[in-house]
Amino acid sequence: MFESILGKTLKTPLFNLIEPIPKIVTTYYGKPSTGKTNILLSLSVNYAQQGKKVLFVDVDGGFSIARIKQMLGKNDVESVLNNIYVASPRTFEEQMREIKNLRKTVERDQISLVIIDSIILLYRLELGENFQDINRELGKQLAGLCDVARTFKIPVIVTNQVREWNNKEEMVGGDILKYWSKIIFKVEKTNKAYNISVLRHITLPQGVGCDFRIVDAGLEEIV
């Protein structure tokens, strides 16, 4: 649990925290193996079970059909997988093209949820002497995602990583991600299992969060 700025302990049930997903850009960030992809797979399955189309841009290689089958058991596996479209860019340029074509993809395939896991991996590989150009391109990509969310009134979710800077842990991409993300969740491992908490939200105060564990059927809140 987390202390709010009012000094009161706040606790929000897991699924009230992450759903319904607002039709804006949301960022989940944290270290590797903190449950980010499992959250996104659970959200994807929830959408697909309702007959909605999901575009999952799998940059990290974490999209797992086996994991989705595990979540579903024997229920709706084929129909769910048919409703989840997967793209796998392998360079920052391919990611750029995927996002530039996103409006056409969303309109053509009637996509209801866009996920990019993660927005930052290929960006980090490109950073070097031309970091200003790469930062500018990342900003353009996020602006494009915001435009898609606003135009088609659908949620867009991205994941991000962390880095150590001046003995502090912060999001990679810094102000670029903070500027374009209207909602930001931090996901981390705890002694119990995992924790998700609000860094920024359009309706919830900073610090609201809950602990959860990853189980065969998806996510389970720890109370």
UniProtKB/TrEMBL annotation:
SMART domains: AAA (SM00382). Residues 1-162 form the RecA family profile domain. The gene is radB. InterPro entries: AAA+_ATPase (IPR003593), DNA_repair_and_recomb_RadB (IPR011939), P-loop_NTPase (IPR027417), Rad51_C (IPR013632), RecA_ATP-bd (IPR020588). It holds the Pfam family Rad51. One of its GO terms (molecular function) is ATP-dependent DNA damage sensor activity. This is DNA repair and recombination protein RadB. Keywords: ATP-binding, DNA-binding, Nucleotide-binding. PANTHER family: DNA REPAIR AND RECOMBINATION PROTEIN RADB (PTHR22942:SF47), RECA/RAD51/RADA DNA STRAND-PAIRING FAMILY MEMBER (PTHR22942). PROSITE patterns: RECA_2. SUPFAM superfamilies: P-loop containing nucleoside triphosphate hydrolases (SSF52540). GO terms for biological process: DNA recombination; DNA repair. Involved in DNA repair and in homologous recombination. May regulate the cleavage reactions of the branch-structured DNA. Has a very weak ATPase activity that is not stimulated by DNA. Binds DNA but does not promote DNA strands exchange. Belongs to the eukaryotic RecA-like protein family. RadB subfamily.
